[in-house]
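look at this record:
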Amino acid sequence: MHLIVGKGPQKKLKPCPVHWIMPRLPASLRDVLEDAPPLVVGPVGAGFGQESLEEWALGDGRQVVRDPAELAGGPALLLPARRSRIAAVPRHLPLDDLLVLQEADLLLDADDWAGELAGAAPRFVEESFRQSEGWPAGLELSSRAAPTGTPLHQHPLAAIYLERLLPGDELREAVGRAALTPLLVPELHELLELGTDRVAELLDRGLLFGSGQGLTMPKLLRRYLQPHPDARVAQAVAEVLARGGNLEPALLALAEAEQWVTYLETLAANFEPRPAEGEARLRRALEPVPSALRRNSAWLYLVGTLDRLCGDYDRAQERYRTARRGVAGEPASDSRGDSIARIDNGRGIAFALAGKLEQAKRAFGSAIRHGTSDRLEGEARHNRAGVYIQQGRYADAESDLRKAIASFRAGGDFVREARSVQLLALSWHQRGLLREARRGYEEALDLLATLGQPSALLRTNLAEVLLLAGERAQANEQLDQAAAETRLDTRARGYIETNRAMCLLAEGEARAAARRLEALLRGDGLDARLRAEAQLLLARALRQQGDRDGALEYARQAESLGVPASLEIALCGGGDLDSVIGRARDEEARFDLAAALLHRGSPSDLREALDLIRTHGYGCLLDSPQYAPVLAALVQEDPAASQLFPLRIATFGTLRVRFLGRTLTLADFPTRKSAALLLRLALSSRPVPREALAEEFWSHAGNQVQSLQTGLYHLNRTLGAQVIASSRGMVELAYPVRLDLEEFERSATEALGGAALRNLEVMRQAIALVEGDALAEFPEWFDDERRRIEGLLVRLWRRLAECEEARPRRSAEALEALLRIDPYDVESRRDLIETYRQIGDLELVRRHREALRELESEL
């Protein structure tokens, strides 16, 4: 509600009865002012409750000044006459001691308004609030004006009261021209004959204030200045505003000029339903239209759209048909063609929602033929592509989407371009083309980020692709970013939850996934698609827990999802797997085909599944404890396939080995020596002589080589595959290795090899990889590796401390970390003492000086 540039603890100087001394400040603002910092800066806008703020300040024991130069110390309220004077607030004033109020902070809500006009007729209270939109000066006028039945801006007192807020100089005319638009954007300056300097002066003197994408003034003041707007000017203003995406102020300009036909046409051409609020927005927009226009074709189209949003598709089609007949009788023109295209596009959407896909395609085709604008063609092609995807006609869908993307791009409609890119990525996603889908989603995300548009739903789609690719960490990052977005609707939250559950399933946490999905399904507001996807995922979680009957029930409720649901039904014993495989081939559902082939499990099925996994990157199947061991068996006949099953080994802190869908710790190995043997082979960049291994690990054994062979045998059994390759007295791992030590060494070397200041982030990323001591569970082995890692870590902390010298606290943190690794580093101890001296922490200076003296005496 307000901007707090900074707010530190502030003891109130003088308690006061808030409700008595500031009767016309919004309740929400009163709460903020209860703990106001020493300096409060009031808004500049004319009529925005400055008198009430002054009354509050005096009651709070504050100095009230009009110019920053008059500030004399102590709590104060600054009421600047110009915005430019705010910049003169003394620079030495801590930002924690400053609260800057804006015009919006002083607007009253309906409850505040009604409370201040208690005793007035309810209709007058409601109407005066609607006309004033919470403007404090409007409340002052309303409290003094007896209801006359005329609009408040035409009340006899308005001319007296509102004129006092207006300039008496040459700016008076400029204010009047600015009042011709509900929202003043730069594109309107020339049309309204307002120079940039004039607009800046109006803003500086508080006759305009910021709102959305432009500037505005209180509605009541604007209506007073322009009680009868010129129709042609209003239409020109509305056209500019609508073209810039400011539909509501465009409609307001037309309504105030009583240009209702243009109002309906503008609304029809620009209204786009938004999830969860489209119906309410359209109702509000239609409410003021006079009843005489309710047979107008644009009205019928809009009411048909309202029927569609309410789910009444038959009634929507009836309205659309009537609207179309009316437009078809008009003389031929581009606008007539666009009106027909708009109606046909609406008809197509209603047909598609009702499941009448062929009628939907014909309607969208008609819209494409009749429309003349890039946007209309793009919308119709985008929507027809959605129907093609439902029918499994992906080539046709891709063709339409590429043309839609080109149309939107040509028209500069980049938000819709991003939407079509997303749908194209979704079509690849559904066919299991993960790499293509990922590129498409990332392109759409880049577009939305550039435009500052919400992207939560798109991130959930990308997260699912990443999960299927086996990249769980990146998937969770996308879900975290999606969840952090403001204004998440039910659909976005639901898809975040389903993807979180999918992550849990991938991690083997079927029970936790089921709990999450059951909680989601108990909630309200889920659309049919989201509910079906949650039900299918819950079926999968229940099957993994052994509850096939419960899983089958949920899978059948999700049958609308097609092949994925059919596969789950078959896996639960309720369908034929062969028919699912045939259907998956027909519909190009590659991922589901691979999963089904793995379950059927013939040698040819496994080879085909592996080819699909290899081609499209289905990493989640390669990392599944159910599928990975079966697929790994193919390595014997196809050695190159071993590259698909890396041994992922983490050695910082505790040992963790991820292989064939299982995570092993030290306790899972028969002995620490067998785990150390695996690490020695993983750390070696080339095959190791058998004798060298035997000597290192079994130097005291009677038969060293035989002991080694036993250790290798147990290692293969523990890992569940023939991971050891042995030939001509040399031993190596038959599978690739991804080792956290090597990743750290690469990152550290990169960070230390370049210019220090440019590598700050790389250094921090390298340090973040270290989650405990290297090889901590194997103290009797790997001394060289430990020393190398510690040496790199010390160098990283040293370089980081040097780079952060301008920020002493961060430099001190780096030096403290360095000394925890190497407490005998005298130079670093001295640097740390100097750094704490700069900070002014004398106690830490004393402690480290004592430690340094002890160290020097010991050395």
